[in-house]
UniProtKB/TrEMBL annotation:
PROSITE patterns: NA_NEUROTRAN_SYMP_3. One of its GO terms (cellular component) is membrane. The lineage of its organism: Archaea, Methanobacteriati, Methanobacteriota, Stenosarchaea group, Halobacteria. The keyword Membrane applies. It comes from the Archaea. It is found in: Membrane. Its main location: membrane. It is a multi-pass membrane protein. This is Sodium-dependent transporter.
């Protein structure tokens, strides 16, 4: 068997993991799911979820990957035995479903990027009656959406087929700071808009009675968003950690990834909600999956230098989406390569091709986006995370604390605290979230 690849540089792993985490989940999904959950009430539950479940969960994926040095399906097989292999198969299905619509949404960002080449965003808006919502409605489905979905999937397949991870690592290095600077600048500008105050109220001032009365909706929504945004629950972090040496401090890496990811999502909210309220939109939930496009086109139309900023913003997010999409296709491809002995380019093309076909209906009608997104996030990802917790918490716990301590030193009682958090409270919360997610869906 060929020597298994490892990360070319010390920072390769962290760059790829951050590249996978930071993407449409932060910029596109976070604002509209937050709006769906009523704003600040959702934000609170989501942040708790990231800290108390996302953080232990990412460590679980890391130790599984580093210990087994295998793709997620092979890793479950090795740790749990034959029956768990089939559960691992769910990861592959999840990857299929998520990437199929992820690519369509990424295509929208490419579309809005090109709009900036055709004219100012104010002019582009004018061709749609000056209405950002109408513009989104017209460009989000149809021939152009189909073509851009095709382009995005082709690039994703190309990168994974050629195995050119280095280029993506470099792109991530530039992309993350660029997104932070752009969002921070936009957030400052949004702050100056008259009427934006109500946006902060909506986003940052939780009404705790809504949380308690609405927790059956908030819990599965927060679970799905937390796992989606951190790329958890389908083996991406298992796969990336499987190429890893033993000297890395996984806890520190987890904190870095979560810090960037959560920070960028939070900043996005600080841009979107003030802009909405300043524009007189008092129910941000109306925007749905178009929320980010509606608020941003409005902003870039009003802002001096908006055309350049828009090009930068939509272009950077498209690149962020690419590094996430690559991680999705990489899991699926690595599985076929490792377990079926197929050549890399054939695996990437075959799997990518099927995913591409699955995404096509979304370019016809956004109803399919809803169906696929809620199924993948609210059910499949939570299921995948729950299964991993059961495996590492109960079935094969012996290796976990020892593996985590490599590159750190003796964990003392913290290691035990981590494993016990996984064993009881986290598993309980995930089981309830999964149940509620299923009830919600059907
Ligand atoms: N974390 C990515 C984002 O926030 O856009 C999306 C994603 C990538 C989800 C990889 C799941 C995954 F396995
Ligand atoms: Na993310």
């Amino acid at each position: 068997m060929a020597q298994r690849e490892t990360w070319a540089t010390r920072t390769g792993f962290i760059l790829a993991a951050v590249g996978s985490a930071v993407g449409l989940g932060n910029i596109w999904r976070f604002p509209f799911i937050t709006a769906d959950g009523g704003g600040a009430a959702f934000l609170v539950v989501y942040l708790l979820f990231v800290a108390f479940i996302g953080f232990p969960a990412i460590l679980v994926e890391f130790v599984v990957g580093r210990r087994t040095e295998r793709n997620p399906v092979g890793a479950l097989l090795e740790l749990g035995g034959n029956a768990w292999k089939y559960v691992g198969g769910v990861f592959i299905v999840t990857g299929f479903v998520i990437l199929s619509y992820y690519s369509v949404v990424a295509g929208w960002f490419i579309r809005y990027f090109f709009e900036g080449f055709r004219g100012s965003y104010a002019d582009r808006l004018a061709t749609h009656g000056g209405e950002a919502g109408a513009m989104f409605g017209e460009v989000s489905t149809g021939m152009d959406a189909f073509v851009l979905h095709t382009v995005f999937m082709a690039v994703t397949i190309g990168v994974v087929a050629l195995g050119i991870r280095r280029g993506i690592e470099v792109a991530t290095k530039a992309m993350v700071p660029a997104i932070v600077v752009l969002l921070a600048g936009l957030a400052v500008w949004a702050f100056t808009l008259s009427g934006s105050g109500a946006g902060y109220e909506y986003y940052l001032s939780p009404d705790f009675s809504t949380i308690t009365s609405n927790w059956t909706n908030l819990l599965p929504a927060a679970a799905g968003q937390a796992f989606f945004t951190l790329s958890l629950g389908m083996g991406v972090m298992i796969t990336y950690a499987s190429y890893l040496g033993e000297d890395r401090n996984l806890t520190k890496d987890a904190a870095t990834i979560i810090g960037f990811d959560t920070g960028i999502a939070f900043l996005t909210g600080l841009v979107v909600f003030p802009i909405f309220f300043a524009a007189g939109i008092t129910d941000p939930g109306e925007g749905g999956p178009g929320a980010i496009f509606v608020s941003m086109t409005q902003a870039f139309a009003d802002l001096s230098g908006g055309r350049l900023l828009g090009l930068l913003f939509f272009g950077t997010v498209a690149i962020a989406a690419l590094s996430s999409a690559i991680s999705l296709l990489e899991v699926v491809t690595a599985y076929v390569i490792d377990e079926k002995g197929v050549e890399r380019w054939k695996a990437a093309l075959g799997m990518g091709g099927v995913i591409y076909l699955l995404g096509i209906p979304v370019t016809y009608d956004l109803i399919f986006l809803d169906l696929l997104d809620l199924f993948a996030d609210g059910i499949l990802l939570v299921f995948g995370a729950l299964v991993l917790m059961l495996l590492v918490g109960w079935v094969a716990p012996q290796f976990a604390v020892e593996e985590l301590s490599k590159g750190i030193g003796d964990l003392g009682s913290l290691g035990q605290a981590w494993i016990w958090a996984v064993r009881v409270p986290i598993i309980a919360v995930l089981a309830v979230s999964l149940y509620l997610g299923i009830v919600d869906y059907v």
